[in-house]
Amino acid sequence: MHCWKTINLKKQYGFDRLFMISALFGTAVFMTSYIGLAIAYATPLSDQHFLFFILALLAVYPLHKILHFLPLIGCHKSLKLIIRKQLKVCPAILLHINEPVSKIRFLLSLATPFLVLNTVLVTASITMPAYSHYFTMLLAYHCALCLTDIIYIRNLSRSPKYSFIEETDTGFEILVPPIVS
């Protein structure tokens, strides 16, 4: 197989720029979802169960990473879990794949957290409108986390259909099998 393209978002955008875009994206999601729910439901908001909100806020990031892992369960022998500090305070959980993965499986791995957690949060905010402000904050935080996944999905969707994705030190490499005639 040969490398068709290498994608490295930190090199392409830079950490600070990605962080800023992610924060702006999360803010936009919060404003639109909160205003939409406030218009749809006239239910008074409750500030009870704030401790559960804090626990849910802390649980979103690990759940996000676990949901990335689920589509890759068949590759569990080649997965490596790394925990390191980001910004000297926050732990960052990284999943590295040591072997090439099919494009479809990798795209599914990128999209699963966005689809599953956001569906749960939107459904919860609709079914419990008194706590919709909590759920919209969680939704905004999770959408901000998903921004890099969305950018990767956009880049990978343009790659050849039967390609494989391999993670290296320089980023994600899109590998294309040789043409057999």
TrEMBL record:
Asked whether the keyword Transmembrane helix is assigned, the reply is yes
Family annotation (InterPro entries): DUF3267
Q: Which residue ranges does UniProt annotate as crossing the membrane?
A: 21-43, 49-75, 106-128, 134-153
Which terms are listed as keywords in the entry?
Membrane, Transmembrane, Transmembrane helix
Classification via Pfam families: DUF3267 (PF11667)
Q: What is the protein's name according to its record?
A: DUF3267 domain-containing protein
